[in-house]
Amino acid sequence: MIKDNEINSDISEIIDRISQEYSKNIDLKSNACCNTSLKGALYVRSYREFINALESCRITFVLITTTYCPYCRLFKPIFYRIAEQYNNKAAFIEVNADYIPEIAMMFNVYSTPTTIVLVDGRMVDELIGYIPANYFKEYIDDVLKNVKCIQG
């Protein structure tokens, strides 16, 4: 027969392990730049999707495009390729202003492509037009270093 002391000891040990694991998770999340695992860029189809995506990382790069913009077509592959290199460091979101114009209006975007930079949900910068891959990557590195999401 199991004694009460043994049960209490086992329960106490389990609770200690759970609390230690919980503490580790909180420490990891507070130091992390993203609270979900993101892989590459996300194409959002609604305002609600956009808001949900913003909540996933401290730093968000929002590419605002339009359907028939030739420079958007040139820059999108660069944006998506670089997004894959920064998994769990920042969120990369594409928004087509033809389908979700309220997002473009929210950031006063009048030409595309425009890349909006958000830190903790606040707009800190915007890049208007096509950007060569090497310059865009350097810019992202600088932003991530400034907010301490990568070492530098």
UniProtKB/TrEMBL annotation:
Pfam families: Thioredoxin (PF00085). CDD domains: TRX_family. Residues 23-145 form the Thioredoxin domain. GO terms for molecular function: protein-disulfide reductase activity. It comes from the Archaea. SUPFAM superfamilies: Thioredoxin-like (SSF52833). One of its GO terms (cellular component) is cytoplasm. Keywords: Disulfide bond, Electron transport, Transport. InterPro entries: Thioredoxin-like_sf, Thioredoxin_CS, Thioredoxin_domain. PANTHER family: GEO12009P1. This is Thioredoxin. It comes from Ignisphaera aggregans. The lineage of its organism: Archaea, Thermoproteota, Thermoprotei, Desulfurococcales, Desulfurococcaceae.
